[in-house]
Every structure is written in C-alpha cells, then in structure tokens.
Specification:
Length: 574
C-alpha cells in the first residue's frame, strides 16, 4: 500500500507551471533585447561561449529537483498492513461469584471487593496471556470474552456488582460449563479456570461440570472467599443486615468442603482467601507452572518512510545543475530562487526526519512495555510537528496503557475531531479511527459514563462493523446504561411508593379513628333516646355488638397491613 504522510504539501506542485511560464517569459524577453542590438544570428557568432542548450538543461534539472523535493516533503510511505505475531502464553477464564452473600465483611473490605482487588493485581502480572471474565449468581453470564486487552479487563472488573445478575444463588456448575465453551478452539494452548466463590447456596452439579472440564485438559482452581464461621450480609448501611422470611439475620458461611471437592474433581487447587496475599501468590505460582504455548495475536504495522531515495535523487540533480554553469548568464548566477526553496524544503525534511525518529523510538519503547518512556518520545515528536496524527494516536495509546485515562481521552478526541477529514484523505484511516472510538468507549466505561461509551462504541462499529469485541462492549454498555436508568427510576418510584404507603396508613388510621368517634357519638345518642325504654339486657346486647364491631375493624386493619408486608417479602436473596 502507498500513501503520503503530509499530502497537503502536494499543493506546492502548482509552483511548477509558474516556473515554466517564468522561464518562457525570460527567454522571450532576452530575445527581444538581443534584437534591439541587431540580427540575432550575427550576434550569436560574436558570443561563441553562450550555449542555449546548457540554459535549457539547467532549467529542467532545477525543475526536476524541485518536483522531487516537493514529493519528499509530502512523505511517501509504503507497507501498511496487519501482521500476525506469535506470543507465548496461556488462556485463563475467571468465574466470579456476584451473589449478595459476597457482600459479607468477614474478609476486608468485603468478599467481592477483596476478590476484585486480587484479580486486578493478578492481571497486572500477565504479559502475553489471554484472560476472560464470567460473572455468576443464580445464572452465569460472560462479562468479557477471552482477550489480551488487560486494560479492558480491569475496566470491566471495576464495574462488577451483585445487581448485574438478577437471579440470586450460586450456580457454580453453569459458570464452569460457560467457561469451558468460552476458550479459543486452539487445542495446544494451556487452559485453566479460576473460580472465586463462597460456595453459599450451592444449586447445580458443580462437581460433574468440573470433572468434564478436567477431561478436556482444563484445570479448575477454586478460591474460597470468607470464613467457615460466617458473617451477616450488610444492606443499606447503618448496621442493617439481610434477614430471612422469619425475620432472622442471615449468616452466610464459606462452604469450604464443597469448594475442595470441586477443585479435586477439576484436578486443580483450592486456596482460601484472607486478609493477606497468600491466595494471590498461590494463583500466580499455579499459572507460572503452566506450559506457555504460542497464541496468535494481531498487531498494527506502521507505514515505512520511503523519502530517502527521492531525497538522494534530488541531491544528485542539484549537484549536476550546480556544475552545469554558463559564465555569460549573469541573470541565473544572481537569482537565488532555488537556494531559498532548498533552505525551506531542507528544513522541512530535517524536521520531518526528527519527528519520525522520535515516533520510531516511542514505538520501540512501547513494544518493550516502557510506556512512560514512550510517552516522552511521542511528546518530543509532537513538539516538532503538533499536527502529526500518528504521534497523537500513539501518545494516546501510551497514556491509555498507563491508565492516564483523562489525558488519553484528550489525545483521542483530537483525532476524533478530524475523523471526517482523515476518511476523505484515505479510507484506510478507518481502522485507526475505529480503535480510537473503541478506547474512548472503554474510558467512558471506566468513568461509568455509559451514555458516552454507547455512542463511542457505535462510532467504532460504523468504521469497523466486524469487530466482535466492540460489539460486545456496546451491548454491555447499553445494559449498564439501562440498569443505571432503571435504578434511578426504581429509586424514584420507591420513594414515591413509600410516601404513598405512609399517606395510606395515615388515612387508614384517621378513617378508623373517625369511624370510632362516629360510632361512639351515634351510640351515645341512641342511648340517650332509648335510655328510658330499654332494659338492662338490651343495653348489654348493644354494648357487646359495639365491641364486636370494633374488634372486627381492628382485625381488618391488621389483615390489610399483613397483606401489604407480605407483598414486600421476597424469596431467598443471598
């Protein structure tokens, strides 16, 4: 493939017709001046050293040199392509329990946060490995397909919470089966499953699922979260804890025996997490023992600069033009037009060369995972040419790898703002722009700005519709955005319902009190009217009827309140 790095400089080619017109006009003016002195043919014999051919040669050599220099400034480039490289690593699927029982605080700060911290530090130790993430409670869902993009993995990991899975429970078997199906079909690569759970409310055949995984050469390692003596599940702050239907505080306990049985069936190890780093070290040692195999991974190969050959050609033409002198031609001796152009063009060439040198140095450091040093090199390149798209893009990537997300987003926005122009210049820029919007979407996910993430992922897919990872990220961002909006709506509705319930209870109490007051008043009037006519037995019957009516009213109120409370009760939620 071929392109120009700075195609705007090609507008300098309009200088060439102007030079031709100027040269023709100069020759015509010279001939008219000679005719004033006499017959040009006779005068030519008096000037034997003058050679019109040499003048023509000098002009066309100068003309060719200027043309070549303009193409050099534009920056011809060849060789853009995607190439496959081999990397040594393993494949790891992480299954993380997100049931409500993982909120217990018998491990600081709680079971779920401790698991997320441990996985984040484990991911920092990966180099060429591939990792995927599954969340499960009563059901299991793929949170992140298996990938070598560790930045995205940490972003998705930070957004995990129990509300992601609506069905509560601990479907360990479903999570293991989903993890087995999520690996790549490469049979030669080492594969392992890391399952992090407290084993609470075990529901399906997890041991059978682990046995089938082991038969396929996939080890199942278990990390137990919590303590065997258990802890309550905090809800809503203020020392409130989850209760069962009978009103008793729920105490969730680590089912250590079940976790050990699953690990044994999966031919893996079991380790219990505590407030130290022992579980993390055990996992790292287990992964280090695995055989590293070749994993295919795509990387982007930059364009190669090809201006050097043209620069040598231009220099050669200039040397010939300099040596081809006409002593009599005083006009061309004094005209320094080309010298001025040469200084300008040469300065531009050296500036471009300095920029490319810094970018190449940055790329080298980036490939060595020295992202801070790469950032410095890219910034030096941008000091020479602030308009460099390649330098801006690479600087954004270096900042992204360092998790300097606001600074990376700033660089990506500079490129995104020029998206339309870049596509008009070269449709091959679509791939790079797609990656820019993909990373902007990931940054939005990190900041929980799901609406911005959705829009960025859509832009990325418009440029590269075949990107499955972006399509998955878009679906997840849309789900999180919907959940966020529904949560806000639910909160508003809950506040409204609570206020309505309070109003209804107050109305019922007022109505009941008013009814009792009316009944007493009616009864008093009746007693006054019939006091002289009724007997002692009749008075007793009326009094009993009044007490029975009041008792029935109280029972109806209690029944209504009990039904209202019953509607609010749910099934087991941990």
């Amino acid at each position: 493939m071929f392109r120009f790095a700075n195609p705007d400089y090609l507008y300098l080619l309009f200088i060439l017709p102007v030079l031709i017109i100027f040269y023709v006009y100069s020759n015509l003016s010279k001939r008219r001046a000679i005719k004033k002195y006499g017959n040009p043919e006779l005068l030519a014999e008096l000037m034997p050293e003058v050679s019109p051919k040499r003048q023509h040669w000098k002009f066309w050599l100068l003309f060719a040199a200027i043309s070549v220099v303009i193409f050099v400034i534009a920056g011809p480039q060849f060789g853009s392509k995607l190439e496959t490289v081999k990397r040594q690593g393993v494949e790891i699927m992480v299954c993380l329990d997100v049931s409500n029982s993982m909120l217990a605080e018998d491990v600081a700060p709680n079971r779920l946060e401790k698991a997320k911290q441990m996985l984040s530090r484990l991911t920092d130790g990966f180099s060429n490995d591939k990792v995927g993430l599954i969340v499960f409670a009563g059901d299991a869902f793929t949170q992140l397909p298996i990938t070598s993009d560790y930045i995205s993995a940490k972003i998705f990991l930070s957004s995990i919470n129990p509300s992601m899975v609506s069905t509560q429970g601990t479907a360990i078997g479903a999570a293991i089966n989903l993890a087995v199906r999520s690996f790549t079909p490469n049979e030669s690569s080492e594969k392992t499953i890391i399952l992090i759970t407290d084993g609470e409310n075990h529901e399906d055949d997890a041991i059978g699922a682990a046995t089938k995984a082991a038969e396929k050469g996939i080890r199942v390692n278990i990390v137990g979260m919590g303590q065997p003596n258990g802890a309550p599940i905090p809800i809503g702050g203020n020392n409130n804890f989850m209760k069962d239907k009978e009103g008793n505080v729920v105490v969730t306990k680590l089912n250590e025996q079940m976790c050990q049985e699953i690990a044994a069936a999966g031919q893996g190890m079991y380790v219990r997490a505590d407030n130290t780093n022992s579980a993390l070290k055990a996992l790292q040692n287990e992964i280090d023992k695995m055989n590293k195999t070749e994993l295919d991974s795509k990387i982007y190969s930059e364009y190669d600069e090809q201006f050097q050959t043209l620069a040598w050609i231009a220099l050669f033409l200039l040397i010939i033009e300099f040596l081809t002198l006409d002593r009599k031609n005083r006009i061309f001796r004094k005209v320094k037009l080309f010298s001025f152009l040469l200084v300008v063009c040469t300065g531009s060439i050296f500036a471009q060369k300095a920029e490319r040198k810094n970018v190449r140095e940055g790329n080298k450091l980036y490939n060595q995972e020295k992202y801070t040093e790469a950032e410095i090199a890219y910034r030096k390149g941008l000091e020479v040419n602030p308009r460099s798209i390649e330098g801006t893009f690479n600087l954004g990537d270096a900042l992204y790898k360092q998790e300097k997300f606001p600074e990376a987003a700033e660089q990506y926005q500079l490129i995104a703002g020029q998206a339309e122009k870049l596509l008009q210049d070269d449709q091959r820029n679509a791939g790079r722009l797609s990656q820019v919007f993909h990373n902007l979407g990931n940054i939005g996910m990190k900041n929980k700005e799901y609406a911005k993430s959705v829009e960025a992922y859509k832009q990325s897919l418009r440029l590269n519709p075949k990107d499955d990872e972006t399509r998955y990220n878009l679906a997840l961002a849309q789900k999180l955005l919907d959940d966020q909006q529904n949560q806000d709506q639910d909160q508003d509705q809950q506040n409204k319902d609570d206020q309505q319930d309070q109003d209804q209870n107050q109305d019922q109490q007022d109505q009941q009190q008013q009814q009792q007051d009316d009944q007493k008043e009616d009864k008093t009037q009746e007693e006054q009217q019939q006091n002289e006519q009724m007997s002692q037995d009749n008075a007793q019957q009326i009094l009993d009827a009044f007490l029975q009516d009041e008792k029935d009213t109280q029972e109806k109120v209690k029944k209504a309140q009990a039904e209202q409370q019953q509607r609010r009760r749910t099934d087991k939620e941990w």
